[in-house]
Amino acid sequence: MSYLVPSEFVTKMVDAGESKIFMSTRDTVIRAFMAGAILALAAVFAVTVTVQTGFPIIGAILFPVGFCMLYLLGFDLLTGVFVLTPLALIDKRPGVTIGGVLRNWGLVFIGNFLGALTVAVMMAVVFTYGFSTPPDKVGTVISHIGENRTLGYAQYGAAGMLTIFLRGMLCNWMVSTGVVGAMISTSVSGKVIAMWMPIMLFFGMTFEHSVVNMFLFPSAMLMGGNFSVMDYMIWNELPTVLGNLIGGLAFTGLTLYATHVRTAPKRRLPQPHLQPAE
Known about the structure:
Elements: H1 6-21, H2 25-53, H3 56-62, H4 64-72, H5 78-90, H6 98-128, H7 137-148, H8 151-154, H9 158-184, H10 188-204, H11 210-222, H12 229-260
Helix pairs in contact: 1-5, 1-12, 2-3, 2-4, 2-6, 2-7, 2-11, 3-10, 4-10, 5-6, 5-12, 6-11, 7-11, 9-10, 9-12, 11-12
């Protein structure tokens, strides 16, 4: 599968972060829009398979198909740029600034949200025959996901907020590992295998992914989910975004960079004491 050693693919991570910071506004938004839309379709697919089979693990096994598609096509998720662009800043690449990193995050957030929202509206129409009938079985499940993962957290107060945040951290630990997986190999099969494993894990464990949630919650509200926009933002999206940022950067980006680019000096073996000649 044409495996690259860590020192090689971590350098590619820094290069990728730098290129994303200097990308034009138009290209950044288009790529983010398509990433959000494709990931939303993958979420619909996974929920549909789960409803059809009754086995959530099958949905988790198949969900990574969307992630693999969008990264092979060169599109960008917020969870990925959270990890890659700060590395270019830390590596002191010429012209890279905090403002440039924040600009990239903002544009990718907007693009991801618009793409996911577009699919949310389209699928809500599909699930309700143009809002002329109640949602079908899959649509009903999605609407309840929205309620359970907003009001379900809110009932626990601070403990619920901590739970969202930690599930967001754990999510992007795995998702950003999938982003790195796309750089581990130079072959399509190698990239897909390396991306598939951590993405399957995050979805199977129902961790909180900010971009997937950009589809699930608007879609649920369109189909009668019993929660508000503020419930969604406060009790899911905002703490999830913060958890995704810290988890991905701390557990994936900084650890790989620190140990494969900014490596510590090698230990020196103690020199044996020479006995003076008699």
